Amino acid sequence: MQFTGFDLDHFVAHYWQKQPLLIRNPWGDWQNPLEPDELAGLACEDDVESRLVIGNDGNRTMENGPFAEDRFAGLGTGPWTLLVQAVDHHVPDVAELIAPFRFVPNWRIDDVMVSYATDGGGVGSHYDNYDVFLVQGLGQRRWRVGPKCDSRTPLLPHDDLRLVAEFEATDEWVLNPGDILYVPPCYAHDGVAVGDDCMTYSIGFRAPSRSELIEGWAEHLAEQFSDEERYTDPDLALQAQPGEISEAAIARLHDIVMEAISDRAGFARWFGQHNSTPKYDRDWRPETLLDEKALLTSVAQGLPLIRNPASRFSFIRVGPQENALFVDGQSFKCEGESAVLAESICATPVILLGHTDVQCADVASLLIALVNQGSLAFDDDG
Ligand code: SIN
Ligand code: CO
Fold first, then answer.
1. What structural domains does the chain harbor?
2. What's the count of helices (H) and strands (E) in the chain, helices before strands?
3. What is the value of pTM for the model shown?
4. E strands within 222-329?
5. Which atom belonging to ligand 1 lies closest to the Cα atom of 134?
């Protein structure tokens, strides 16, 4: 799916990660992909993360889901908003909303949060650490945006919500169904429902923090080394001051760390696996493990192979015909035909395989592994 009348090069050059942008309905024929009742139903499920924010302005309270089915009817006529995380993992039509935003690589895409609000409802003025495209699905919402905040920006005292204290917006728009507001990381924004039945789809992105990277990579490295690998000084230099940690000792200690930490190829492998670890689990593992015979049968039946929407797929080029494929925290060395397959699995959520595709033993074993770990499945629902 491509937007009409939307200049992607211009957007990336002037707005992406730079400044907010209002995009008036670029979808052509916008269809709201989810009914409010279906969203409320998801918020009642145990494996779905949801929040309810009741009230507005200086008086908001927050509750975490899952909610009892009669919770929403009991909310009365005041402003409230329900927010449900990763709805794309449960509703294929919501997952399809990500398609036009796939100019951003898979590893930077998070998931789609969906909100429903009654008149005047909203989460309040806040900023997020990630880029977001706020797609107005149903009804209207007034968005105010800017300026850019950081960790020194004063927040209102609140136990559950991080609300920007003195929010002075630089822009303001009312969004209609199909309109999109792009908000770069750290820009304050405040969306208030105008009328009831306001639904907003947040296409969210991810970007690892420096501390997350250092912590994860160092922890991974630390597990590789034995306790015997230590600082040594067989050439101990005698020193006048027993309290001094000498320059030479510091240099050697620093080398021990830097030598390990600067392993670029190892870092790439670790990052691919780390980044592909799913945030929410949707267990698609088959009851009966797939084997080569069953694989050939499914392919002969012409069943499409679909990606688990909660699974993360990405790859790194290791050589001219070799890729390292990362799926759900696992890595797969792919050469030749399986390297080509790895790229197409990452590029499209539905794959149709031909008989000849699975003749290659490497391709067959990659597919079997991905199906058996629940990252891919043959779609026999048509
Ligand atoms: C909302 O949908 O109400 C909030 C989305 C956001 O601000 O990120
Ligand atoms: Co936000």
1. 8-205 (2.60.120.650), 210-235+242-262 (no CATH), 292-378 (3.40.366.30)
2. 9, 15
3. 0.95
4. 305-307, 313-319, 322-327
5. 5
Q: What is the mean pLDDT of each run of 10 residues along the chain (382 residues)?
A: 89 98 96 98 97 91 96 93 98 96 97 98 95 98 95 87 90 98 97 98 98 98 96 96 98 98 97 96 93 96 96 96 97 97 95 90 97 96 71
Ligand 1 contacts CB of residue 53 (under 6 A): no
Bond into 208 cis (ω within 30): no
Tokens for 86? Answer: 């990763």
- The identity of residue 153, as a single letter, is T
Mutate to test the pocket of ligand 1, among 50, 51, 60, 83 (most ligand atoms within 8 A of CB): 83
Q: Which protein residue's CA is at the shortest distance from atom 1 of ligand 1?
A: 115
Q: Output the residue whose Cα is nearest ligand 1's atom 5.
A: 202
Cβ–ligand 1 distance for 125 under 6 Å, the answer no
